[in-house]
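FAQ

Q: What does a record look like?
A: Structure on top, sequence underneath. For example:
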């Protein structure tokens, strides 16, 4: 199943703006050029992009390159409205057509953790994703000792599917 190009430029919550990564944004981050983001009025958060972002951007770029455009089922930048600072990202690791599922991931820079941003952004993105009939389930996983992610996934109503030696696997059904 081929997904359509994303038709919106951003999602918003009370405190956040979510904008989708694009091929151009990814390529620029990889070479340390942030002019494209600056020209949109955004600034880098204190430690953004952190090591996790720099390790993830090549995978985001690979997912985006499969369609040559953003579908929304890739990753999104998280921006604080009041400062226009990029403080992290969240999103999906692509669409799995056989299971009609997407896998959620998120990351907030260290200086901004504990402020509820991952929860706020995740709720908005989950709500958006479940407006599509093709999405039957969202999955997620976290390390067994990542208490913050476990707490967040429970708040988001994810159900524990199984627990391995290192990882816990979760799912959330689309009940629409």
């Amino acid at each position: 199943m081929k997904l359509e190009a994303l038709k919106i430029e951003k999602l918003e919550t009370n405190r956040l703006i979510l904008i989708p990564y694009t091929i151009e944004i990814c390529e620029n981050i990889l070479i340390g050029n942030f002019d494209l983001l600056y020209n949109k009025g955004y600034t880098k958060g204190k430690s953004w992009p952190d090591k996790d972002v720099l390790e993830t951007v090549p995978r985001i770029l690979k997912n985006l390159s499969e369609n040559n455009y953003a579908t929304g089922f890739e990753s999104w930048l998280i921006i604080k409205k009041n400062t226009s600072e990029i403080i992290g990202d969240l999103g999906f690791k692509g669409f799995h057509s056989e299971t009609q599922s997407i896998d959620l991931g998120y990351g907030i820079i260290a200086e901004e953790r504990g402020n509820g941003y991952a929860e706020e952004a995740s709720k908005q993105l989950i709500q958006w994703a479940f407006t599509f009939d093709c999405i039957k389930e969202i999955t997620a996983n976290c390390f067994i000792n990542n208490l913050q992610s476990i707490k967040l996934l429970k708040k988001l109503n994810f159900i524990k599917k199984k627990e391995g030696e290192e990882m816990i696997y979760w799912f959330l059904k689309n009940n629409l």
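Q: Is there anything notable about this one?
A: The radius of gyration is 16 Å.
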